[in-house]
Each structure stands twice: as structure tokens, then as C-alpha cells.
Amino acid sequence: MGGSLKYLLLIAPCLLAIAVPLFNSDAPELFGVPFFYWFQMLLVPASALCIYAADRIGKA
Amino acid sequence: MFDHLNVVATAVFVFFFALVTILGFVAARWKAADLDHIQEWGLGGRRFGPWVTWFLLGGDLYTAYTVIAVPAVVYSIGAYGFFAVPYTILIYPFLYLTMPRLWAVSHKHGYITSSDFVLGRYGNRWLELAVALTGILATMPYIALQLVGLEKVISALGFAGTGLFAHAPITIAFVILALYTYKSGLRAPAMIAFVKDAMIYIFIIAAIIVIPYELGGFGPIFAAASQTFAAKVAANPKLAAGLTLAPQQVGPYVTLAIGSAMALFMYPHATTGVLSASSSRAIRFNAISLPAYSLTLGLIALLGLMAIAAGVKVGSPQDAVPQLVLWAFPDWFAGFSFAAVALGALVPAAVMSIGAANTFTRNVWKPFIHPGMTGQEESVVAKIVSLVVKIGALVVIFVMPTQFALDLQLLGGVWMIQIFPAIVFGLFTRWFSGWALLIGWAAGMILGTALSWTGAGWAPVHALKWDVPFYGPFDPGLGFAAFNGLTAVLLNILVAIVLSLVLRPKGFDETSPADYLDAEAQ
User: Fold this and answer.
1) Closest residue of chain B to A15, computed from CA coordinates
2) ipTM for the complex shown
3) What is the CATH code for B7-402?
4) Rounded to two decimals, what is the model's pTM?
5) Residue B521 has pLDDT above 70, yes or no
6) Closest by Cα among B24, B54, B110 to B273
7) B356: alpha, beta or left? (left if phi > 0; alpha if psi -120 to 50)
8) Which of B223, B296, B333, B450 has a C-alpha 20 to 30 A away from that of B289?
9) CB contact under 8 A, A32 and B96
């Protein structure tokens, strides 16, 4: 159970990162930044958090 | 030669360069040990803790060339250059899952390079040689491109020489680098990386606050870039440029991100950084913390759009960021920023030359020329090779057009991914036959190179329909273009699977399943 959640946490950000049609648009903008840019930038710390969570599960 | 020299910026630049030169030599005494042994010279004695590894890998993977080239693509055509962001998102889950295993088995058996592991795992010295030569071949042009990054910032300082003097600054920089790398080994770039990374963070934080402020916020920046791309496309309807991806760019964008991520940790300089860690915990820590650099890379990519909004006009897009820096900052901070980029060339150039030198020594020279070398003899050969590699890079930049290094670097990515099956599959299973992997590698190398040749030049992507020799046009109806490295590695894997079913029994495996695990892995 913990094992599969761990791998899900590692794979989910990768799948989001390559799901280009999902974020290949200008809207919605954030502080004047098109969605394409802020979504991918936001995904970077989000992916780090996912790896951190996966690491904690690995150790528990 | 010095008529247009920016004196203040140059003084700051030279100050930081002198500082890291001292550090580079002092590094020989850091975590003092016998540098006449290859494990000490070429791997820092495997004693770099989580934070040293963080600075070293960060400095090693996010190179000066990246800082110049990624915003250059964004400056030219917009969204497509942003593929570096999904690419760097993909690498860290991969790092987390695979590299602690490589570290554990290498620590157990004393492997210095990934080719060492391949030999131990498959007992096939020809596969070992193939992996080693692929790494060396792909690394050489990569080092040369660091010189291009260095040259861009030096020319932005206003240095304009002719003839022999044109290359004088980078020659001096590289000779100094070669000397302290020779003396201190991996300790030198590890120590310099602290300074370099701190400077890059200061530069990018300042840039991301000051430049949007001067340009009136992010809204006007994206609006200006959007208009410029629209005008470019209107002038040349064949060009795909814009703030989002054109439909035909989506396939290349995704496959370049995936393929580049698969190739990255196959490079000798990445393996060197990983294996120099003191524990597999240090590697896992880095899989969580290295994305901080990816965020920086994303911000650096946006500098390409800011250069458009600032009205920076350059002949070569690679001058966009240096010119933007001169436009936005006072001279002393421009000098600081350029020094940050220049150090960003030296750290990876040092680690790359060490990685290539370790590989040549352990996996080409030792098995094929001089078996039975001692650790001390290995260290002597590696030090000399690290010099030769750097001189080779200088010569390439002097006598060949820059396009040659660019083409080779592009092909390097296509080639590097072809050792992925041997190494990464090998970390998890011994099901594959060494000979099958070798033939798969050869098939991938040939296909990848052939796909990249357009008839007039080299290109990294190819439509997924082909003119097959002796067969004719073949179109499976996929309807998009893909990164050639990825297409070729799929054939590589297919060949390796089919031949592994046929080619049994397999060679000797000196590793056992427990060697791949550490205290944390279940």
C-alpha cells in the first residue's frame, strides 16, 4: 500500500510535466504570466514536494 | 582590443575569477588525502556529503551553456525553449529511483565509472568499451560549448581581439582551470561550485526583481514578446514561434524533454557527481533539493522574453542575455553576473574533463593497453587525459566553426541515451544479455545518427515517418515529429529484448542483488 503510493508520488509530476495539451495556453494568466509558464514553473516545487513525500513514505 | 572595454565590469569579473583560482588550488588540501589515487583525484574519495553534492551536481548539471542557450531559444522562438523545465522535472524522480542503486553497487565494488559497473554486471568488455566511448564522444563537444558560453560573456565585457588575441581570454581561463583540475581533481570544482552557485542565485534573484520592475511588470513583458513573435511569423509563415507551442512543436517538446532526461545521468560528468557522494542518502536528499536549480533555470529562460521586451537586438540570439544584463544593471553588477556565468562554465568543464578522464583511464586504457595498472598509475593517466581533453576542446573552438561543436553536442544527446538500457535496466535486472545490449546500442547509434542527418545539416527531431532503405516510404500514421535519441533508443531496447531471448547463456556477473540495496531500500 505504502509502496504503490510512493511510486504514484514519483510518477504523477512526471506525467503532468509531459501532458503538454493540458497547459499549452495563455489563459488563465497569473500576474500577467501566461498559464504555460506559471504552470510549469509551479510544477517544479510541486514535484520536489512529491519526491519529499515519497521519501518519507519510504522511510516510514 | 581594449577600446570598448567596460573597465568596472571587467575589474569585478577578474576579481571573482582570481578568487576561484585560489580556491581551485587550495582545494587540494580539502578533506586531505593521497591525490595520487584515482578514487581520491577523480571521485573526491567518495566523501562529499549532501550539501557538497548539492552544490557540485547543481554546478555540474546547470552549465553556462544552458544559461546562455536556453534563453537564446526562448528569445528566438518563445515557448519551445521552455522544454528545459519539464526536462528538469523528469530527472529527479529518475535520480531518486535509480542512482542510489548505482551508488550502492559502485561503493561495494569500487566502481569509478558507469562503464566499470557495466563490466562488472555483464562481464562483457566490448559493452564496457562501447559505453565508455559513447560517454567520451558526447562529453568532448559539451566541454567545447562551455567555452562558447565563456566567450559570450567575455565579448560582452567589451573585449574585441583579432587573430590570436581573439581567443586569448578563454585560453588563459582554460589553462588556469586545467592546472588546478590537474592538481586538485574533483575537489576543485566542488569547492568552486559553492561560489558559482551562490553568485548565480544572487544574479537571478536580482534579475527577476529588477528587470520586470524596469519593464513595467510581467504583463508588458509577455505582451511585447507576443507581438514580436507574431511579427516574426507574419514575415515567415513557416516559422513556429510564439508564447505557446504551435501544434507541430508539441511532439518535439515532449520527446526532447523525455529523451534529454533519460540521457542526462548517462553522461560521465553526471555519474562522477553521483558517485562522489558519501552515501545514498546524500543522493536522495539531492533528488528532493536539486529542483531549486530547475526553478532558477525556468527564470533564466524567461530572461529571453525580457530581452525582447527590453528591445535588445543582437546578431546571435546567444548574445541576448549578456546584452540584457548590460542594459538592466550597473557595470559592477554586470561584471558580477558575467563572472557567475563564466564560473558556470568552469565547474562543469572541470567535472566533464574529470569524468571523461576517469572513463578513458579505467575503461579504455586499462583493459586494452595496460592491464594491471596500479591505482597510482591510473591517477597519472587520468590527470594527463584531463589536460588533453581540455586542450582538445580549445582546439575545436579555435579551428572549427562553432556550429561543429553545436552539431556534435546535439548528436551527443542522441548517442548518450543509447547506453540507457545497459545501465538503467542493468541496475534492476540481469535478464538482458551483454551482447544483445551491445548490438542494440549499435542499432540505436546508427539509427539516431541517420535520422539526425537532414541532407543539409543536423537536426535533433525527425517526423515519425521514414524512407526505409530497400523498402521505401513507411508512415505508421503517428503524425508528429520526435527527438531522434528517443526514437533510436526504442529500437535499441527492442533489439536488446529480442536478442536476449536468443543469446543465452550470458556472461559472468560479479554483483549480487543485495549489492544494489542500502540501509534505506527495502
Assistant:
1) B90
2) 0.94
3) 1.20.1730.10
4) 0.91
5) no
6) B54
7) alpha
8) B333
9) no
